# Entry
Amino acid sequence: MTSPGFKRRARSQREQALLAKTERYLPAGVRNPTPSPEHAMVIDRASGCRIRDASGNEYIDYLLGSGPLLLGHAHPAVVEAVRRQLERGSSYLMVNEPAIELAEAIVQTVPCAEKVCFNSTGSESTFFAMRLARAFRGCDKILKFEGGFHGMNDYALMGNQWTRELRDFPAAVPNSAGIPRSLEAEVLVAPFNDLETTTAIIEQHADELAGVIIEPLQRTIAPGPGFLQGLRDVTLRHEIPLIFDEVVTGFRLALGGAQEYYGVVPDLCALCKGIASGYPISVLCGRGDIMALASPTRQVSGGYVAQTGTFSGNAVSCTAALATLRELQREGTYERLFALGQRLMDGLQAALDGVGIAVQVSGEPPAFQPWFTSHEVRDFRSALQADAAMNMRFTESLLDHGIVKAHEKFFVSTAHGDEEVDLTLAVFRSVAEHLAASQQP
Ligand SMILES: Cc1ncc(COP(=O)(O)O)c(C=O)c1O
# Structure
């Protein structure tokens, strides 16, 4: 079962030895697209939209480091800019020209951004966004949406896409052992795309709600007509900060992110993947009066929100982000990205329709995924009805055909071209036939 041009080589001795060490030393620190030992791989290098394992197999990459490689791997303009910066030092703690220039560029690009703070990961920026909201409002509870993912901090890791225990709204379900039980009471969970229930929860808890955080494109589930605007209206009515987690959508759906794409502007926003071509940086930005609480002058005047980190605003990551932004600003970038993604979404739906496998391809062209179900997927509970085992077989079969994706999404980059898309569409058809054949009694 190989696609034209792809025939998986036997695992090399080097890769076998590296996998043995992985098993011995790294219980959690590495990721593969599927848990199957047969498909485990160690990555050796990547360039553009191609990634190569330590046995020399080259795959078309739609995982893209889980999203950050919006320009593809090792984009020459980013590599060159970073190389020049590396010679001048990498991390000074103190403010530097690339950080200042990047802050200015973010304010000019992202609709909600009046002021900017830098962090290193998405989890930090969502964490600090919630802390800022709590300080601003003088109360503690945060509302999030069921199935939404905001990273690894204890407040975010509730009711996300890994949840299997369904509680009545707005009760939160922790997604990890080790989260203090007391925090469950500080997080309220609402159903995505259900404005009526969400509004009722917000109105009932308005006095104790510090903020509402949402992935505007939740995983790959698009907001229904009026949902984000309705959320904006009710949060404005109660003066509750609305936080967009644009860790995935920032720079990916548009230069101004989902807030530009969907036309709804939040009070605060977290950006991360997509902004710096794989260099670790995240951005927390938003309304000047809320962001001002992070100013160290507040240590004297009171109400200071601590939010800093050793590598925050380091010159290398900021340089990479500026170089990435310059490339993305080229005319026609998003038109091409969307056109390629749309061909992939349509081709995937058609390939599976063609063999009678029920599927819903959800998302936006730069980030999408198949759900193996005949039901409409509009929130977490409808997504749960999809056939997860079929999705895993689909992901593994793609690997057998030389294509890497996350077990959830496909990410598309500007480095993908018509050649890779044509090849991928041919693979979709082969994989669809393979899945249909394996379903026969
Ligand atoms: C929407 C969203 N928010 C937050 C995060 C956490 O970002 P990080 O892994 O950089 O901490 C992720 C990571 O996948 C994400 O997809």
In short: The longest strand covers residues 209-214. The radius of gyration is 22 Å. The pocket of pyridoxal-5'-phosphate is lined by residues 66, 121-123, 126, 149-152, 215, 245, 247-248, 272 (CB under 6 Å). The mean pLDDT is 95.
